[in-house]
Structures are given as structure tokens and as C-alpha cells.
UniProtKB/TrEMBL annotation:
Entry protein name: YIP1 family protein
The organism of origin for this protein: Paenibacillus hodogayensis
Record keywords, A-Z: Membrane, Repeat, Signal, Transmembrane, Transmembrane helix
TM regions (residue ranges): 455-472, 532-554, 566-587, 599-619, 631-651, 663-686
Protein's UniProt keywords contain Cell division: no
Membrane topology: Multi-pass membrane protein
Length: 705
């Protein structure tokens, strides 16, 4: 009986479960994670980071009893003890949190000499001294670990500073020698390097000036007076700076197109690859690289680089050399959730790998935590970078268990197998990663070993084949003199027109050696047939499809199963048939003597080099490495040039033109093709518009009477 008292409570609990269900995974992870393969195609990934919490919910109440909060938080810094410092620009203070993210204290908020005004940067050195870029007061303030002001740094008095130099510090770092590196707003000279006594040391990390082609031409041809009247092209101003444990400075510059992220050595030179950093667009249809504006970077103890793209509100993580590991979007979708960003301004990493992101528009500071997937990726990448190749294997394999399409994991295993000398395994992994160059390196090693073991057998086999070919050819020529002299036929092949097709095939092969004579024969004797022309067209299509399927992976690093026969055939047939039709139309108006059949059959004969050599070249490419690619590419270009020349010869002979008339005909044919395609495009576009118009008009008549 007493148990019945719990029935209402049980019913209420069940109802509460339905009314307030637990948050779904999609609500927990409000952004998609993705990466790109070696060919630039976007691939979806497991979530890289999970939103955990917002910092600042425990700030003390204001004097009037209202809740306090951030106002335009600009910068975030994490010291060696995982204490967090936020440059709360709008409130004119530094907000400090402990290692657990709990509020600790304010710095620089009290009236007096240490009062801050619109601070935009904060840095804490190894001794615990707190440096603040007091932007509104055009100075840098140094506080003790207890928060007491120690000194201020203003624009140094130096003859080396330009007279018009404005000292408006926004970001700063301090190196192991206690030198300050200050980012000053609008300073194109680079960062200002100051000593502890506020003495000017140098400008550091200046960006290069990159002239546009127009600027270069102006400076090349203009007179001295004209050049002096040109406006100066200035390098971009550095936006942000951070420093890693080894003392390397990383800068971001949003006002330039390349080298937006730099890793500066002690001489101020960038040692990162210039073109590695990019922001992929999460397009599902294939490669798409967006423009970017890197606003801030954070560097882990292992050298992994995390960056914010202010243009797309995307957070990206790269390895120490700038190779993309993964990225995820945190763009604001007007739903206030942890991890959704509207204007990310600052970035920092804790020792545990947690990510802190400030947003100076929503006035929020987000705490994101790496998932097991991203932890494994970072662990494997770090181990390999440190030379611990064997230890990196297990994390990479666990990554593939979570996401088998992650090309970076296949790439890591490929490099590991290469180090071991497992060439076949390395080739398979490089193929999974779509890395043609790595595949080529492994293939070169395996091919060399294979040739060393079988060199004698290969040499004997080649000599034997050559001798056998010579003997067979000699025997055939003795027994079949008529066939050797081009007359008669092979017994048994005279039925069903096979003999005529055989003669036409022989003529088709002869076009490679004596094209003018063959085209004259086609014109005068009308020996070409529609049947053979269509057979050649089918052979050309099969050759092109075979090229897509059987070209060596080094030169065509795409999975064969992704080849689309319909698209391949369309790309080949449309230009080819357009040429035939337009060339015939032009020739009828421009004194051409060839019929439509002559143009079609002659074009098929002119394509003999492409039909005969495309597939053998594709098969031959499987035995070449990337360093030998010049042979393959030269042969490909030679076939195309050869085919183009035969097409020109065909036009001249079939239509009985001279050289000038041939050139005019070819140019008019190409122009006609362009006009034809444009007309088809306009027709299709208008047809769709007309169809939509009729459909909407019908809806109006039906539903509105």
C-alpha cells in the first residue's frame, strides 16, 4: 500500500523525460568537422572539439547589484599554470580565471596610474609578470604577479623611429631575454622590439611588399617624375603575435594574400611554407578553397598550429609544417550556443589541449575540449614529427578505426612503412591517401629491387623476343609476298567485308607515315567508309576511357571507380563532333570540296595518333616514377601535337586548299564552334526560363481563376 505513494512521482518523472529530453548529439556539437585529402577534395570527419562551457558566468555582481559580464573581449592568454587572462576591452580591465576556469580577480580596473583603457592584448611571462597592451592609452603596462603596476612602456625616444610613427600597441609577447615584441596598429614596419628599459632595439618580422602586375609595368615604363607621383605600395600591418616554448614567434596578417601565418626565426625570417595554409570550404561536391583572414593563432607544446579565420568564423588546426589536420565551423546561426562564433577575436590553448575562443561581438568566451578523435590525430602527428615512428603507428590505426577515410592517417602509415622498407604496404597506403609523389618514391624503391633480382631474366627474354619477331616476320614475308606488297588478301578473310576493313585499317595506319598521300586517296578515290569511321570513333572513346582507368597512379592519383564513362565520353565527343559539323559548314561557304562524309572520315583518320598511342602510353605510365614523368608528359604532348597537325593537313587536302585558305578555314571553324556552343547555351537557358514561366502562368490560371 505504501508503494502506491511513489506512483505519482514515477508518472511525473516519465512525463519530465518526454517534456525535457536529454540533448542530442547534434545539439552537443553545433558545428561540422572536416578536412581535405591530398587532391583538395573536402571530406567529413568525426567531431574534433566539443563545446564545454562559457567563461565569466561567475563574475562578481556590479556595484548596482546587476550581473557583470564581458564587453568586447579581445585577447586571451593561458600561462604556464593554466591560469586564464582575458583582455576585456570594453570594460577596461584584465579578467583572470584559475586553472579550472573559475573567476580569480580583476587587474587594471582600479583608478590610478595602472588604470587600463580599452586593452586589446595580454601576456604573462615565466616569472608571472603580466604585460598588457593598453591600447586606449597608447602604452604597455607591466604588472607584478600580485597585480601591482611596475612600469609602463611608451613610444621610445629613438632616432631610428620614423617621425610619423604612431605607437598604438594592440598585441605583444615577451621572449626569454625579456625583450618585448609589440604589434602597433597600422605599423607597416613590422613589430616594435623593445628592451626592458623601453629602449628601441629594432623592427622585427616586417612583411614583404608584393607588387601587382600593373604596378610592375608602371615602375618599368614610367619616367622618374611619374614614378614619384605614384602612391607607395606598403607592406601589410601585422595583426597578431604569439610565441612558442622554443622562442619562435608566430604572426598573423589579415591584409595580405599569402603568408598570413608566419613562423619567424631569430632573424625575423619566415620558416613556414608560404603556400601551405588555406581554409577549405565545406562543399560536398568537390574541392573548394575559400579566401581567408587569419586573425589569431595558438601553438601547442608539440608545435601544432591552431588558427581562427575571421572571414568564415572557422577554427583550423595544422601540423608544425602547416599541413591541415582538420577544421570545424563555429559560425553563428543566430542561435546562442556554446561554440557558435560571430566575431572570434582571440585564441589560446591550455596544457590539456582545451581551446579558448573570445568573441568580441557576442561578448562570450568559449571553452572547447578535444574529442578522442582529435587527440589521437594530434598524438600520432606529434610522435611522427618527433621521430618516434613506431610509436605513431597505433594512434594512426585507431584514428582509421574511427574514420577510415581520413587521408592524414593513411599518409602517416605510408610514411611509417616507407621508413621500414615495406614498399608494397607503403604504396598501398599512399594510394589510399591519394598521394602520387609518395607513391612514386615507394614504387621507385620496389622497382629497383625487382629489377636487380630479375635483370638477367629480363635481358635474355628481350633478346629472345627480338629474335623470334625477326624470324616470324621473315617467314611471313616469304610465304605471303602479295600481302607484303599491299595486294591480295589473307585467305579466309574475304567474306563479310573483312578484307575491305583490313585494307582500310592498313590505310589508317599508313596515315602516320604518309598523311598527305592517304588524305589525297580519301579525297580522290572515296575509299573511306562510314563503317570504318564509326569504328575509329568507338576506338577513340575506348582509348580515352582506358586512359582514365589505367594511367599510372603517379600521374593520375584518383580512384579508378570514380571515373564516369558518360562524362568522359561527353567531354570527348562534344568537341569532336562540333569540329566535324562546323568544319563542314565553313567549308561549304568557303570553297571547300569535301563532302560531309569526307570531313567525318578524314577527321577520324587524323585522330590516328590519339587512337593508337593513348592507351599504350597509359599502360606504359604504370612503370614510371614521378621523376621520369617528363618522358610520359612529352609523349602525351607529342601525340596531341601530331594529331593537331594531321587535322590541319586533312583540312588542306580534303578541301583542296592552299596554306592561307587552310589557316582561314581552321580559324573560322574554331570561331563557329564557339558561336554554336553559345547559341546552344542561350537556347537551353531560355527554354528553362520559358518552362518556368508557363508553369507559373498555369498555376495562376488554375488557383486564381
Amino acid at each position: 500500500m505504501n508503494a502506491l505513494r511513489f506512483v505519482p512521482l514515477l508518472v511525473l518523472a516519465v512525463l519530465a523525460a518526454f517534456v525535457n529530453p536529454a540533448p542530442a548529439a547534434a545539439d552537443t556539437v553545433p558545428f561540422a568537422s572536416y578536412s581535405v585529402d591530398e587532391q583538395g577534395a573536402v571530406i567529413g570527419l568525426n567531431p574534433a572539439y566539443l563545446p564545454v562551457r562559457l567563461l565569466g558566468n561567475d563574475l562578481p555582481l556590479k556595484a548596482d547589484g546587476k550581473p557583470d559580464g564581458f564587453k568586447n573581449p579581445e585577447d586571451v592568454f593561458v600561462d604556464g599554470h593554466d591560469r586564464i587572462y582575458i583582455a576585456d576591452r570594453g570594460n577596461g580591465r584584465i579578467v583572470q580565471f584559475d586553472e579550472n576556469g573559475a573567476f580569480a580577480r580583476y587587474i587594471g580596473h582600479l583608478p590610478g596610474k595602472g588604470k587600463l583603457k580599452e586593452p586589446e592584448g595580454v601576456f604573462v611571462d615565466r616569472a608571472g609578470s603580466i604585460y598588457v597592451a593598453d591600447t586606449g592609452n597608447s602604452r604597455i603596462v607591466r604588472y607584478s604577479p600580485e597585480g601591482e603596476m611596475l612600469r609602463e612602456y611608451k613610444a621610445p625616444d629613438s632616432a631610428y623611429l620614423p617621425k610619423d610613427y604612431r605607437f598604438v600597441p594592440s598585441k605583444l609577447v615577451v621572449d626569454a631575454r625579456d625583450n618585448l615584441y609589440v604589434v602597433s596598429k597600422g605599423s607597416y614596419q613590422g613589430m616594435l622590439q623593445l628592451g626592458q628599459n623601453n629602449e628601441f632595439l629594432s623592427f622585427y618580422g616586417k612583411n614583404r611588399v608584393k607588387l601587382s602586375p600593373v604596378d610592375r609595368l608602371q615602375r618599368l615604363f614610367y619616367t622618374k617624375e611619374q614614378r614619384e607621383r605614384l602612391s607607395d605600395v606598403l607592406p601589410g600591418s601585422i595583426t597578431n603575435v604569439t610565441i612558442n616554448a622554443q622562442g619562435f614567434l608566430y604572426t598573423t596578417t589579415m591584409s595580405i594574400d599569402t603568408e598570413q601565418i608566419k613562423k619567424l626565426n631569430y632573424a625575423g625570417q619566415n620558416i613556414l611554407p608560404e603556400k601551405e595554409f588555406f581554409v577549405p570550404s565545406p562543399a560536398k561536391s568537390g574541392p573548394a578553397i575559400a579566401s581567408y583572414l587569419f586573425r589569431d593563432v595558438a601553438v601547442s607544446a608539440q608545435g601544432m598550429i591552431t588558427a581562427i579565420d575571421a572571414k568564415t568564423n572557422t577554427i583550423l588546426q595544422y601540423d608544425a609544417q602547416g599541413k591541415l589536420l582538420y577544421t570545424f565551423e563555429g559560425e553563428d546561426d543566430r542561435v546562442l550556443r556554446i561554440g557558435k562564433l560571430k566575431s572570434p577575436s582571440g585564441l589560446a590553448l591550455t596544457s590539456k589541449g582545451d581551446l579558448l575562443v573570445t568573441d568580441n561581438t557576442t561578448n562570450l568566451v568559449h571553452l572547447l575540449r578535444p574529442t578522442p578523435f582529435s587527440k589521437l590525430v594530434l598524438e600520432a602527428t606529434s610522435l611522427y614529427a618527433e621521430g618516434k615512428y613506431e610509436q605513431s603507428e597505433e594512434p594512426w590505426r585507431r584514428v582509421l578505426q574511427l574514420n577510415e577515410s581520413y587521408s592524414r592517417a593513411h599518409l602517416g602509415l605510408a610514411k611509417l612503412s616507407f621508413k621500414r622498407g615495406d614498399w608494397d604496404v607503403s604504396m598501398a597506403e599512399y594510394k589510399q591517401a591519394l598521394d602520387g609523389q609518395g607513391y612514386s618514391d615507394a614504387f621507385w624503391q620496389m622497382r629497383m629491387l625487382w629489377l636487380q633480382k630479375r635483370f638477367t631474366l629480363i635481358a635474355v627474354s628481350l633478346v629472345s623476343l627480338a629474335v623470334a619477331f625477326w624470324l616470324v616476320r621473315r617467314a611471313i614475308l616469304r610465304r605471303m609476298p602479295a600481302a607484303a606488297n599491299g595486294g591480295g588478301g589473307i585467305p579466309g578473310f574475304t567474306r563479310f567485308g573483312v578484307a575491305s576493313l583490313g585494307r582500310e585499317a592498313a590505310r589508317f595506319g599508313s596515315v602516320l607515315k604518309r598523311p598527305l598521300a592517304v588524305f589525297e586517296e580519301l579525297r580522290d578515290s572515296k575509299t573511306g567508309t562510314w563503317t570504318f569511321g564509326f569504328l575509329v570513333l568507338v576506338a577513340i572513346l575506348l582509348s580515352r576511357l582506358g586512359e582514365a582507368l589505367f594511367t599510372g597512379f603517379v600521374f593520375h592519383p584518383f580512384p579508378a571507380h570514380l571515373a564516369d564513362p558518360f562524362r568522359i565520353g561527353t567531354v570527348l565527343l562534344v568537341p569532336l563532333l562540333s569540329w566535324v559539323i562546323c568544319n563542314y559548314l565553313v567549308s561549304t561557304l568557303y570553297r571547300g570540296e569535301g563532302t560531309f562524309k569526307d570531313v567525318f572520315v578524314g577527321t577520324m583518320y587524323a585522330l590516328a595518333p590519339y587512337a593508337l598511342f593513348t592507351l599504350p602510353l597509359a599502360l606504359f605510365s604504370n612503370g614510371l616514377t614521378a621523376s621520369e614523368g617528363v618522358i610520359y608528359h612529352f609523349a602525351q604532348k607529342a601525340v596531341l601535337v601530331w594529331t593537331a597537325l594531321l587535322l590541319v593537313f586533312k583540312v588542306q587536302i580534303i578541301h583542296n586548299y592552299d596554306v592561307k585558305e587552310t589557316a582561314v578555314n581552321v580559324l573560322l571553324t574554331l570561331a563557329t564552334i564557339v558561336v554554336l556552343w553559345f547559341a546552344i547555351f542561350v537556347h537551353v537557358t531560355l527554354s528553362f526560363d520559358l518552362r518556368d514561366f508557363v508553369a507559373k502562368l498555369w498555376e495562376e490560371l488554375i488557383y486564381r481563376g
